[in-house]
Amino acid sequence: MTSKSDKITMRETFQIHWRAFKDVRRYCPGAFGVSILYGAAAALSPYVTVYLSARIINELAGARRPGVLWPLAVLAVASAAALTFVTGALLRWKTAKEAQFLERKNRVFADKMMSMDFADIDKTETHDLRSQIAQSENWAGFGFYRFWDQFEKVAQGLAGILGAAVLTVSLFTLPVPASAGVFTVLNRPAFLALLVLALAFTAALGPLCDNRAMDHLARCAENSRFSNRVFHCFGFLADDKGRGMDIRMYDQQKIARHYMETESVFNDRASSLPRACRGPIGVWAALGSCASAILTGLIYLFVCVKAWAGAFGVGSITQYVGAVSALAKNMGVLIEALGVLRSNVPFMRDIYQFLDIPNQMYQGSLTTEKRSDRQYEVEFQDVSFRYPGSSTWALRHVNIKFRIGRRMAVVGENGSGKTTFIKLLCRLYDPQEGHILLNGIDIRKYNYRDYMGLFSVVFQDFQLLAQPLGENVAGARNYDRDRAQKALVDAGFGDRLASMPAGLDTMLYKEFAEDGVDVSGGEAQKIAIARALYKDAPFIILDEPTAALDPIAEAEIYAKFNDIAGDKTAVYISHRLSSCKFCDEIAVFDHGQVIQRGTHEQLLADEAGKYHALWHAQAQYYTPQPSPAEA
Ligand code: ADP
């Protein structure tokens, strides 16, 4: 992760934001167009009023011709109304765009997460980086949002400076008459140059001070990383429905509050933020305000002295004071925006460090032809695998062939490598040694989406969505209702479906509908199994989705599933041997290796084998126990 204190050059500031500009434009077209239009309109519209008011006052103080005054007055009112209208409309448009921008910028991260190698998604560093980016955004808007927001300020600053410069030129060029005596010094080019320098310096001073304050704030953001994490974890504890019972039972809110209070960024002891606000942040911000007050004073002084000496009329005083103040203000806006963009750089570095995580898995292009005979054969050839960053092998020299249409079981104690085996089969990871072949060809050579289409896996920790039941089953908004219904009935959900108020259209859970239906763990499992059936893939895998059930209930579900799997190749994973004894072939995993293979009877016959030992160790759970009276 980059450090916030790394040196930041203007070149890098420009380059990284140019890249952000292109990325944001792709996700949210028109976002910058509306920024430029609104920024320019907001900056330029006051000048029209300033200019026309000056003309009116000059006419009132001079010839007072009604033929000139009336059109000027009408023009001033009409243009003020029109500009207010246009700026107001642009502001609305910008606000709508902002809402769209906030949603779209999240898609950048969601798309990256979806396209990333699974091995990277699994890494703690990836999650740290992502949550760091989210925290910087939530904490002080750093990242894409800050860039977009400041882009508008840059447009506003540039347009404002241009407009003010046009209205101010004559302030410096109109000479004081020779009769003004000592005041003719104001006409000297050297004096004018000095004055412009002094004005520019004072105008720059304010935003520079503000930028220093911003730098300190950015540093505090870095120091507050841990506090922010604590806040993210404990701040919303009570909102988590799933934790409701635990929180009440063990009074967890008290301990959450303790951590929140000791780690709060607003806590004097734990955080540098309050100290920095009282100290450097406060002092620099105050100096910034002070500099702009001095600047306004200087401008008034110069304009009034020049008017006093007779260089221009009283109306022009309004114009020049207004224009020069706006010039200084817009210079300030521009300098401050550039400074903020500079302090945004470290946060953009984090964003691009995340977005640039490379895809290292080879992506093949072969298609897995849709075979009506489902003659797909998968083979593990001497496969060994270690998780990234781990020194121990999760799988070692695994050789297995799936025979088409058969029922295969993968059993073994927890941690023996069963889930890892499935993850490799689904190519969530590539093995470091050996090959996995589909119909004799390395699975890496296939198009990944095509390959994934061959598998339906019901994972241990499957998740359903707060969406209508049918959409959950089909994974789509438009789906074949008859097939979805059949899948649910086959999965044993038929009776429950019949009692659901809106059948397939019944909303699951209550997040988005008051009349949503909460389903039990067992019912959720059936829906997950129906989802796998609806996909109708040639391989169907149950990876202990029944872990929460007792061994007998699990065995019943697995046996029933056997009936509905039809011509599919079904793979059952479990650490409970009783669930899988009906399978054609059972592979026993132990410490990442396949140590035994065969049917239940064959394996049980080997009295020295692991299967025999495990079977007898577990037998108490699924063989009827003699009652105390019988014993
Ligand atoms: P099982 O499914 O049989 O319970 P797993 O395949 O989940 O076993 O785990 C096999 C081994 O790999 C275990 O030692 C486990 O600690 C390790 N392991 C599992 N997932 C990861 C991971 N994401 N990173 C590192 N090690 C892991």
UniProtKB/TrEMBL annotation:
Q: Which CDD domains match?
A: ABCC_MRP_Like
Determine if Transmembrane is one of this entry's keywords: yes
Cite the GO molecular-function annotations of the record. Answer: ABC-type oligopeptide transporter activity; ATP binding; ATP hydrolysis activity
Q: Taking every annotated instance into account, which residue ranges of this chain make up the domain ABC transporter?
A: 378-616
Q: Give the transmembrane region(s).
A: 27-48, 68-91, 154-178, 190-209, 281-302
| Subcellular location(s) per record | Cell membrane
Q: Per the record, a Pfam family?
A: ABC_tran
Report the domain of life of the source organism.
Answer: Bacteria
- GO cellular component assignments: plasma membrane
The cross-references to SMART domains, in alphabetical order and at most eight, read: AAA
Query: InterPro entries in the record, alphabetically?
Result: AAA+_ATPase (IPR003593), ABC1_TM_sf (IPR036640), ABC_transporter-like_ATP-bd (IPR003439), ABC_transporter-like_CS (IPR017871), P-loop_NTPase (IPR027417), Type_1_exporter (IPR039421)
Q: What is this protein called?
A: ABC transporter ATP-binding protein/permease
Q: Which organism is it from?
A: Candidatus Faecalibacterium gallistercoris
**Lineage, uppermost ranks:** Bacteria, Bacillati, Bacillota, Clostridia, Eubacteriales
